[in-house]
Design brief:
Layout: E1 4-6, E2 9-11, E3 15-17, E4 20-22, E5 27-31, E6 38-43, H1 47-66, H2 69-85, H3 87-98, H4 102-123, E7 130-133, E8 137-145, E9 148-152, H5 158-171, E10 175-179, H6 186-198, E11 205-207, H7 212-220, E12 227-231, H8 234-245, E13 251-254, E14 259-263, H9 269-277, E15 290-296, H10 300-312, H11 332-347, E16 351-354, E17 369-372, H12 379-382, E18 389-395, H13 398-405, E19 410-411, E20 415-417, H14 420-429, E21 436-437, E22 452-453, E23 456-457, H15 462-469, E24 470-478
Parallel strand pairs: 9-10, 9-12, 10-11, 12-13, 14-15, 14-20, 15-18, 17-18, 20-21
Antiparallel strand pairs: 1-2, 3-4, 5-6, 7-8, 8-24, 13-23, 16-17, 19-22
């Protein structure tokens, strides 16, 4: 079996189909965002690989779906354990091929990936034959597995988001085909090793690597697919929805964000500023980050001074270094995209509060940046940058803050800092899928996650994940003998 050596970790560049590694005679190159070195050549999925994966998943579906949630749980628990056994390898791989901070991988992402699998395996037990009693009948509500599921994950958090979707999909009894991001596929490949070691039956979990335009497009357009779960950009989501829609295949789409970070005049400015600096985490490549700072005009100067103090202390550098807090941008094309947003905004009259240029550390590093002097209709206010670039606007009262917060086509997340009851009241008026009050990043697997408007369709988490990955069926048993009649009297 062919393997790559990445930071001393052996990882396969091949697909994983029907319980075995499958090579390809077509490949694409993978480079590290840290220093642009070649990590290896990755197998690219062809029509034959897509066909093999679908057939394998179809073949595995009857036996896997026939198992009860309790019978699947030990296998999925072992899957989570096998992820844990490979914690160092997952950390090293994702840090090298996606630029994620090694410390964040170790303390946040890998434990969460394990929890994603184990928690949903446990939660699936609660979905068994839920009863509803009415005067006329006894209803048995079943969550039956839908079939073969395609999961497509983005490059900013491949391990976390793959397991976030795989957990409920597998626990519900579906068989899965994972299409990793071509810019960061290595941890998804290692997931296949963990699944194999855990004893998941062949075909239950498959990994087909490749580009979205070729491999992903072939998967989502196939009529044998029962569900498509995608996290990524709006343009790609539109193409997926159109292709899947031709076969009436349901899609869950978690898309971009342009979330407001509201600072009210009664906010704890130091706490808000400290949280504001967190928006540069993962080099700003976080969909749920609050990237549009909306600050009350009375406290704007004090807030900017406080946040500047935190930002100046941020260390930009190699994500493998424990001291680093802001790492690289994933790809040269993304670096140019980020720089282009800033350059056009400055040319149009925006002022740079800090940053505003590429960072001297390396080719794919950009300075943590804050721009102000912007209008609501400006490109950088309206569109997702997906880099370490924030904007700041001021407001005079709550109504103006809410109008600005709701004034884009996105509606994923948000942050609101202020006196708790005041901030809660404002937060409830912001049109978004979720919003944190005096906090950021608090997540619970039982809670819904997703956006509105261009930020997505559907919800993930808890029962919401199972509602998507299952066919919900009502078995109706009358309480009295039923006599058929055409009479309406």
């Amino acid at each position: 079996m062919t393997t790559l050596d990445v930071a001393g970790i052996a990882v396969s560049p091949d697909h994983y189909i029907d319980g075995r590694r499958v090579p390809s005679d077509q490949h694409f190159e993978l480079h590290s965002p840290i220093d642009q070195r070649l990590l290896g050549r990755i197998a690219e999925g062809t029509a034959a690989h897509v066909e093999a994966a679908i057939v394998a998943a179809q073949k595995a579906f009857p036996a896997w779906s026939a198992m009860t949630a309790a019978e699947r749980q030990p296998l999925l628990d072992r899957f989570a354990e096998e992820i844990g056994k490979r914690a160092d390898a997952f950390c090293a791989l994702e840090s090298n091929d996606a630029g994620v901070l090694l410390s964040r991988m170790r303390h946040g992402v890998v434990p969460r990936a394990m929890l994603n699998i184990a928690w949903f395996a446990q939660h699936a037990l609660t979905l068994q034959d839920r009863p509803i009693d009415t005067e006329q009948a006894h209803h048995i509500v079943r969550h039956d597995p839908a079939g073969v599921v395609v999961i497509i994950t983005p490059w900013n958090a491949p391990l976390m988001l793959s397991t976030w979707k795989l957990g409920p999909a597998l626990a519900a009894g579906n068989t899965c085909i994972l299409k990793p991001p071509e810019w960061a596929p290595l941890t998804c490949s290692l997931l296949a090793d963990a699944a194999d070691a855990a004893g998941l039956p062949p075909g239950v979990f498959n990994v087909v690597q490749g580009t979205g335009a070729r491999t992903g497009a072939a998967l989502v357009a196939d009529a044998r697919i029962a569900r498509v779960s995608f996290t990524g950009s709006v343009p790609t989501a539109k193409a997926i929805a159109q292709a899947a829609g031709a076969n009436l295949v349901p899609c869950s789409l978690e898309l971009g964000g342009k979330s407001p970070f509201i600072v009210l005049d009664d906010a704890d400015l130091d706490a808000a500023a400290a949280t504001g600096a967190l928006m540069y985490r993962n080099a700003g490549q976080v969909c749920l980050a609050g990237t549009r700072f909306l600050v009350h005009e009375k406290v704007a100067d004090a807030f900017v001074a406080a946040m500047r103090g935190y930002v100046e202390k941020l260390t930009v550098g190699d994500p493998r270094d424990a001291a680093t807090e802001v790492g690289p941008i994933i790809h040269p094309r993304q670096v140019e995209r980020v720089a282009g947003f800033v350059d056009r905004a400055v040319a149009g009259g925006a002022q740079v509060l800090w940053g505003g240029a590429k960072h001297a550390f390396g080719a794919q590093y950009y300075q943590p940046t804050m721009l102000t002097g912007l209008s609501q209709g400006d490109e950088i206010v309206q569109n997702e940058v997906f880099g370490p670039v924030l904007t700041l606007q001021t407001f005079a009262d709550d109504d103006e803050a809410i109008a600005l917060a709701n004034g884009t086509d996105y509606g994923l997340g948000g942050v609101c800092y202020g006196e708790t009851s005041h901030a809660t009241e404002v937060a409830q008026r912001v049109r978004t899928g979720f919003i944190w009050v005096n906090s950021f990043g608090i997540r619970d697997l039982a809670a819904p996650f997703g956006g509105i408007k261009r930020s997505g369709v559907g919800r993930e988490g808890g029962d919401w994940s199972f509602e998507f990955f299952c066919d919900v069926k009502d078995v109706v048993v009358p309480k009295k003998p039923f006599k058929a009649s055409f009479s309406h009297r």
